[in-house]
Amino acid sequence: MTTDVGDTPLTIDELAARAGVTVRTVRFYGSKGLLPPPVIGPRRVGHYGPEHLARLALIEELQRQGMTLSAIERYLRRLPADLSPHDLAIHRAVVASWAPDEVETVSREELGRRAGRALTDEDLERLAAMNVVAAAEDGAFRVDSGLLRLGVQLLDVPLSQEAILAARKVLVEHSRAAAHELSQLLRGEVAERDARDVRSLSAHMHPLVVQALLTTFQRSLREELSEWITRSGTG
């Protein structure tokens, strides 16, 4: 599935084709409130945009993780209403991280197909530095499927490779610290329960905690960037 549509409006047929689903599925999701209504243009034709495609991609990922339609509805209802297509793509990347690591060996041609673009030698070096891909035998590459989409998006970020790696280190260190503290908190809650209760609680808490951390981080980052931009504009 490709999620790059720019500002070009899509008809329902074009949206379905881009998302790899049927028109009937798009209409069904719309009737369930999983997709916002289209913008009605001339001749009463509905137009869809990047947000619709990003939401379809997120729904697809949630289904891959085994969530039922009712669970997906609850998940989407908890999301802030003002999420951008980029925010939704981040949520999808986080959801994909719930799955076990998927490291596969693929050809360079297949790697480009999965990335949705031709990858230059410089692109491959940057992806390797981010631990997304690694060179294998006979010109093939080992790729972490869960990280590939996010890694490809970072290729277009106007930051140096050193800055991206430094940011990754900060996120990993703070995420581990938060995970450790939350784990200690949960252990106190389940100390008197048996193993089955612990596994059940973990299965339910994992997506909720990830969603809460992501939403909190996004809001904090927006506030930090807003303050920085304000200071820069008045300094």
Average pLDDT confidence is 79
Global outline: globular
**Got a strand count?**
5
Number of domains: 3
Tell me the strand percentage band: 5-15%
What is the chain-wise order of helices and strands?
HHEEHHHEHHEEHHH
Largest sheet: 3 strands, antiparallel
Strand sequence of the main sheet, in spatial order? 3-5-4
CATH topology of the largest domain: Multidrug-efflux Transporter Regulator, Chain: A, Domain 2
Number of helices: 10
The level-1 CATH class of the largest domain: Mainly Alpha
Task: Indicate the CATH architecture of the largest domain.
Answer: Orthogonal Bundle
Residue share in helix: 55-70%
Tell me the span between the first and last alpha carbons: 44 Å
- Specify Rg, calculated over alpha carbons: 20 Å
**Global structural class:** mainly alpha
Topology overview:
Blueprint: H1 12-19, H2 23-31, E1 39-40, E2 46-47, H3 50-64, H4 69-78, H5 85-96, E3 103-106, H6 108-115, H7 121-129, E4 133-135, E5 141-144, H8 145-155, H9 161-189, H10 195-234
Antiparallel strand pairs: 1-2, 3-5, 4-5
Verbal overview:
Strands 3-5-4 form a three-stranded antiparallel beta sheet. A two-stranded antiparallel sheet has the order 1-2. It is built from ten helices and five strands. It has three domains: 12-84 and 91-96, Multidrug-efflux Transporter Regulator, Chain: A, Domain 2 (Orthogonal Bundle), CATH 1.10.1660; 103-155; 161-234. The protein has 235 residues and is mainly alpha-helical. It has helices at residues 12-19, 23-31, 50-64, 69-78, 85-96, 108-115, 121-129, 145-155, 161-189, 195-234; strands at 39-40, 46-47, 103-106, 133-135, 141-144. Helix 3 (50-64) runs parallel beside helix 5 and helix 5 (85-96) packs antiparallel against helix 10. Strand 1 and strand 2 (46-47) form a beta hairpin. The radius of gyration is 20 Å and the shape is globular.
